[in-house]
Amino acid sequence: MADEESTEGTEEKDARAAAPAAAAQASAATPKETVDPARAAAKAEIHALKAKRAGVIEAKDGVALKKIRRKIRNLKRQLRKAAAA
């Protein structure tokens, strides 16, 4: 019974991580909007990190949380710099 619960949690995490990537691909396919692939990849990575961050918060791992927050912050900074340039 405990094994079933643990596999269900990983399936949900996988689905949450795959959803932003699928959304990025779908948005890149629209002809009326030109999407920079690097920007879409960065946004997908941010969404994946946010999903991972939720799990780390539940696990109460402060060091991992700090690293994930730093990665998200740096990716957002890169996106803003690219948009300004």
What does this structure look like?
The chain has 85 residues and is an all-alpha fold. It has one domain. It has 3 helices and no strands. Helix 1 runs antiparallel to helix 2. The longest helix is centred in the first third of the chain and has 27 residues. It is elongated.
Keywords:
elongated, 85 residues, mainly alpha
**How does the major sheet shape up?**
none
Overall average residue pLDDT: 79
Low-confidence stretches: none
The gross shape turns out to be elongated
Distance between the termini: 54 Å
Integer tally of domains: 1
Gyration radius, in Å = 16 Å
Structural class: mainly alpha
Query: Which strand-content bin applies to the residues?
Result: under 5%
Determine the fraction of residues in helical runs and give it as a percent range: over 70%
Q: Quickly count the helices.
A: 3
User: Total strand count, please?
Assistant: 0
Q: Return the string of H and E elements.
A: HHH
Task: Present the secondary structure layout.
Layout (H helix, E strand, L loop, with lengths): L1 H27 L8 H23 L2 H23 L1
Summary?
The protein has 85 residues and is mainly alpha-helical. Helix content is 86%, strand content 0%.
